[in-house]
Design goal:
It contains nine helices and 15 strands. It has about 325 residues and is α/β, with parallel strands linked by helices. Helix 3 links the parallel strand 9 and strand 10. The chain binds guanosine-5'-triphosphate (GTP) and zinc ion.
Length: about 325
Amino acid sequence: MKERIEGFVTAVHRDRYEVYVNGENFYARLKTGVYYSDEREEEFPTVGDNVVLAYNSTGDSLIIKTKERKSKFSRKDPDIGKGEQIIAANFDYVFIMMSLNFDFNLKRLERYITASWQSGAQPVIVLTKTDIAEDVEKKVELVSQIALGADIYTVSTITGEGMEPLKKYLEPDKTIVFLGSSGVGKSTFTNYLLGREVMETAGIREEDSKGHHTTTHRQLFVLDNGTKIIDTPGMRELGMWIVEDGMDYSFSDIISLAVQCRFSDCTHTGEPDCAVRSALQNGTLTDARWKNYLKLQRESDFQAEKESRNKSRESKKTNKKMVRNSSKVNSKMEEW
Ligand SMILES: Nc1nc2c(ncn2[C@@H]2O[C@H](COP(=O)(O)OP(=O)(O)OP(=O)(O)O)[C@@H](O)[C@H]2O)c(=O)[nH]1
Ligand SMILES: [Zn+2]
C-alpha cells in the first residue's frame, strides 16, 4: 500500500497540482475514483488547500482528500451547476491593498472588506503609495469609518515607510492573500517581503498536453520563517468580480459586528455576548438597517435554495460539466 501523507497545494495547473510536503514541492494528480465519480465526495483542491495524498516516489502522487477549509474565497459561477469556484483557501489574513492616489475608492473598499469578512479570514487594510499621495490623514479617517474591526496601515514600498508594523502578521503558519486592483502595488509589496526577489523569476516550466512548454508562475510562496503568501491570478480576477457583481456589499458594519459575537454561529436572537444585539440596544446599529440586512439575507438564502434544487435535478449532467470547466479554469490560470 502507498504511504499516506499530508501537504498543501501551492499551485494548480491544468490537471496537475503542486503540493508542498515537509519543505519539498512535488507534483500530484487527483484520484479519479474520488474526485470524478458521480457522487463526487471531495471538493476540487485549490491553492492553499490541505490535502491527503497517496505518496508515489517514482511519479505523480495521488490526492485522495481535500481537508476542511478554515476560510475561502469563492465565486459563483453560473457555468458550473453547483456554481462555486474556489479561488483560494485556508488563509488567515486578507491584505486589502488600495492606493492612496488614483485608485482610492471607498465604495470598492467597503466591498472588499465585506467579502473578506465573509471569507472567514481577517481583513487588514493596507493603503499604499504614501510617498506620492495627498491628504493621507483625511483619507485614513474616511477609511476608518467603514473599516469597523479591521486594522488600517499606510505604507510605501518604495521608501519602506510604514512597512515595519506589518511584520507582526508574518508569523509562521499564517497565510496571507492580497486583494486589490491592478497597479496598487501587490507585486512590489510581495517582493519587498521576499527580500526584493523578482516574482517573475519564480515561474516554473511545465509541459502542457500538446507537449508545449509554458511558463507558469508560483501561486503560493513560503517565506523563510514559514509564512505563506498566496498570489494567484484568480485573486486578481476576484477583485474585479467583487467590484462588478450586483450584490450589495454595504453591510460591512453588520458583518464586522457579527464576528465579534461570543459564538461563531450566533443567530443574534438572544445568545449571551451578542455584539449585534448590544449594538441594536445602544443605537450604534439602527433597527431599520438591521431589518434591511435580514431581508437581503432571506433573499440570498432563497436564491441558494433554488439553485441547490436545480442542481440536484441536473446532478448527473452537472458533474460531467464541472470536470470540463475545472480544466478550463486551470488552463486560464496558466495563461497568466
Ligand atoms: N510611488 C510608489 N509606487 C509604487 C509603490 N508600490 C508600487 N508602486 C509602483 O506601482 C506600479 C504597480 O505596482 P505593482 O506591484 O506591479 O502592482 P500590482 O498590484 O501587483 O499590479 P498587478 O500585477 O497588475 O495586479 C509599479 O510601477 C510600482 O513600482 C509605492 O509604495 N509608491
Ligand atoms: Zn450575535
